[in-house]
Amino acid sequence: MKVIHCLTATRESCGSATPIVCLRNVSGATLKRMSVVRKVRVTLTSLFLVCAFCSLSLANSIEVVVNTDLLPRISDSLDTYYQDLVAFGYAPTVYPYDPASGTTSDLKGHLQSRWASGALDGTVFIGDLPVATYEMHDDFDGRYSAFPSDLYYMDMDGHWADNDQNGRYDSHLGGTGDVAPDIWFGRITTSPLGNESSLVDDYFQKNHAYRSGELKFKKEALVYIDDDWRSWANGWDAAVQQVYPGATTLVDDPYTTNADDYKRRLAAENYESILQTIHSSPSLLQFKSPDAYSYVHSYEIPLLNPQVGYYNFFNCSFANYTRTDYMAGKYIFETDYGLAGVGSTKTGSMLRFDIFYNLLRDMTMGESFQEWLDILGVDGYQLWERQWFYGMTLLGDPTIGPATVPFSTSIPEPSTLVLLALGWGVLFGYVGRRCAGSA
Asked: Which residues of the chain have pLDDT under 50?
């Protein structure tokens, strides 16, 4: 696989009158795929003309940050992922990073420079990369806590400080902007789970199968609410129904929600999404019944192999990717179906599901997660919001979601794309400018 660096370029360097993606050392097959823009949103007032011979818009610029030691071991599957991103209308940059020679601030500084130049909308971290740890002396019940916070890598203009110089951030202020996230984010962290490179390869294989329409799910969701949150069950089910109208299965009976019932459903039923609210640690789920407790352990998830693509883990510390066999990772990276999930690295989880699922009707998981966190942080994060949300992260690929429509891997020739684009332009009265220097 060739590591591909995409840079903004000028007319002098690439022959276009507008900023484009400049390609170097890219194969002809990849260049063809770069001409395909999947997300074409046509309105009566605007239309983006596909310029098949020149460039891909930077409107969906993504930085794929990869651990340098892992990179050569996943080169083929990473190339497949790169080509899938291009076919879905993204402008990706592969950025190898050696965590042994850099810090969290170094890596974030690189992202900030890309963002400041208008060349970054989101990022995916692949492999072990510097972990931004945040500490609180006023967490729930006044307790101390320290946990990974990926909000650090999403907030491009806030100010994060380590005031006591112990290697953990303890202050987050508006800086030159605000404390809310500016880019979307996802991580593919598999080293705590087993064979790192094999798990990444397998993940990109099923990701490609999903994008190409080979991996499919029923357009249904499971809403599994354990006893302590039953009072909110109907409202949370209504939130999920924004994406799955009339197609959710709500399970909230205290005599039903237990480990055996949960495992039976995971093993036998097919859902595109699950929202589950269950007490947990990084390595187990604890179900509360009127007369007993029951448990599901992390090692059981690959054996159950749930037929589910997307997860909302309302499970404390479930997504703490620094812990061996962290359970959320088992669902996403050690099953044949898991694609992406949001969860927390600490005590706390998502709230305001109505906002998140309303966004998820039209957006990817990454976009919805960013916008949800941004809406909640519009006036800064109060203490209770820091307690609940500062550990939130997204596991898996942030560029897909329930609203994603699988595409055909049979890509039209560039000439066909140009004719189609010109036809659309005439139909809607839009006259597109051809890229200068195109054949």
From this structure: 1-58, 407-439
Q: What are phi and psi of 376, to 5 degrees?
A: -70, -25
Contacts 24+ apart (CB under 8 A), 427-434: 428/42, 428/44, 428/47, 430/46, 430/47, 430/49, 432/47, 432/48, 432/49, 432/51, 433/17, 433/49, 434/49, 434/51
Q: Flag whether the pTM goes above 0.70.
A: yes
- The predicted pLDDT at position 88 comes to 94
Give the DSSP letter of residue 50: P
Are residues 259 and 113 located together in one domain of the fold?
A: no
Q: Which helix (H) or strand (E) holds 65?
A: strand 61-67
223 and 349 assigned to the same domain: yes
Buried b (16+ CB within 10 A) or exposed e, 95-120: bbbebeeeebeebbebbbebbeeebb
86 belongs to a structural domain: yes
pLDDT at 405: 62
pLDDT in tens, 208-234: 999 999 999 999 999 999 999 999 999
What secondary structure letter does DSSP report for 83? H
Helix axes 196-211 and 75-87, enclosed angle (nearest 10): 30
CA distances from 430 to 44, 75, 142 (A): 9, 41, 60
CA-CA-CA-CA torsion sign (104, 107, 109, 112) = negative
Q: Write the CB contacts of 401 (distance below 8 Å, at least 6 apart in sequence).
A: 310, 340, 360, 363, 364, 365, 366, 367, 368
Residue 138 belongs to some domain of the structure: no
Do 64 and 1 lie in one domain? The reply is: yes
pLDDT tens digits for range 326-377: 999 999 999 999 999 999 999 999 999 999 999 999 999 999 999 999 999 9
Q: Angle of helix 353-360 relative to helix 365-376, nearest 10 degrees?
A: 140
Q: Which domain holds residue 80?
A: 1-126+416-439
Q: Is 403 within a domain?
A: no
Q: Is residue 210 part of a domain?
A: no
